Amino acid sequence: MAFVTRFAPSPTGPLHLGHAYSAIVAHDMAQAAGGTFLLRIEDIDQSRCRPEWEAQIYQDLQWLDLSWPQPVMRQSSRMPAYQAALDDLWSRGLLYACTCSRRDIEQALSAPQEGVAAASGPDGPVYPGTCRRRNRPQSPRPRDAVLRLDMAAACRICAQQGMVGFQETGPANGGWITTSDASYASEIGDIVVSRRDMGTSYHLSVVLDDAAQGISHVVRGEDLFEATRIHALLQRVLGLPTPIYHHHRLIRDDHGKRLAKRDDARALAKFRAEGATPADIRRMVGLEPNSARNS
Ligand code: GLU
Ligand code: ZN
Question: Is the CB of 43 under 6 A from ligand 1?
Answer without folding.
Answer: no
